[in-house]
Amino acid sequence: RVREHDVERRADDGLADAQPLCKSLRELDLSSFVTTSVKNMYRMFSGCERLTELELISFDVSGVRDMSWMLCGCRSLTDLNLRYFDTSRVEFMGWMFEGCPAGSKWQHLLH
Questions:
Q1: DSSP per-residue string spanning the chain
Q2: Residue 60 confidence (pLDDT)
Q3: How confident is the model at residue 5, as a pLDDT?
Q4: Predicted local confidence at residue 6, as pLDDT
Q5: Which residues in the chain land under pLDDT 70?
Q6: How far apart are CA 30 and CA 44, in angstroms?
Q7: How far apart are CA 96 and CA 68, in angstroms?
Q8: Residue 19: its pLDDT value, please?
Q9: Fewer CB within 10 A of the end CB, N or C, for the chain?
């Protein structure tokens, strides 16, 4: 379970590299996350290998610059909604989906 202080402790890093927090998570409720000032989501969900779905519809990513390795290793992820992601300011997206299920229908939704 992700505790509030774990997220606050990482907030200075822009929510980057939360891998130690989510390795064994099967579900994650992010509906109350406020991401309007986040600039770095590097490895945010990296290593969340047991997550099967991730609802990011409430994420405001319009100011994010780095999404590289963001979903790396999410090998069980089959349901992901990226429809409202505004990635127009993102500079780094390398390996964002590395290790995700091949042929996942959601990867092409990112623009």
A1: ---HHHHHHHHTTTT---HHHHTT-S----TT---TT--B-TTTTTT-TT--EEE-TT---TT--B-TTTTTT-TT--EEE-TT---TT--B-TTTTTTSPTT-TTGGG--
A2: 92
A3: 38
A4: 44
A5: 1-21, 102-111
A6: 12
A7: 5
A8: 55
A9: N
Report the distance separating Cα 57 and Cα 12, nearest Å. Answer: 23
Query: In the block, which residue shows the tokens 């990296």?
Result: 46
Distance separating alpha carbons of residues 54 and 29, to the nearest angstrom? 8
76: Cβ–Cβ under 8 A, 6 or more apart, which residues?
A: 49, 50, 51, 52, 101
What are phi and psi for residue 20, nearest 5 degrees?
Answer: -60, -20
Other beta carbons less than 10 A from residue 66's beta carbon: 20
pLDDT at 12: 44
pLDDT of residue 111: 47
